[in-house]
Amino acid sequence: MGIWSWPYDNYKSSYRYWNGHAMVDAKIDGVPTLIGWIDYLQGVTFMGAFGVIAALAFWWALKCFDSATMVKQDK
Questions:
Q1: Fewest beta carbons less than 10 Å away: which of 1, 39, 44, 62?
Q2: Can you give the residue ranges of every domain in the chain?
């Protein structure tokens, strides 16, 4: 996620958006501003949180439904 959404580009593009109060520059001539870096970090953190939740769900399912603990062994 972090590599594909890396904020630098070689096309000298600019990006502005409305934040609810005024137009803010997120990127000027292909270089992110402070707001651009904050937006980038928010996106990476948001997607990383989904990754952590998915990993915890997988670990829980693996622990709860482990075939070794579900099969009763006859002695």
A1: 62
A2: 15-65
Taking a C-beta distance cutoff of 8 angstroms, is the pair 35, 46 a contact? no
- Rounded CA-CA distance 53/59 in Å is 10
CA 68 to chain centre: 34
Is residue 67's pLDDT more than 70?
Answer: no
> Residue by residue, what is the 3-state secondary structure of the chain?
CCCCCCCCCCCCCCEEEECCCCEEEEEECCEECHHHHHHHHHHHHHHHHHHHHHHHHHHHHHHHCCHHHHCCCCC
pLDDT of residue 66: 77
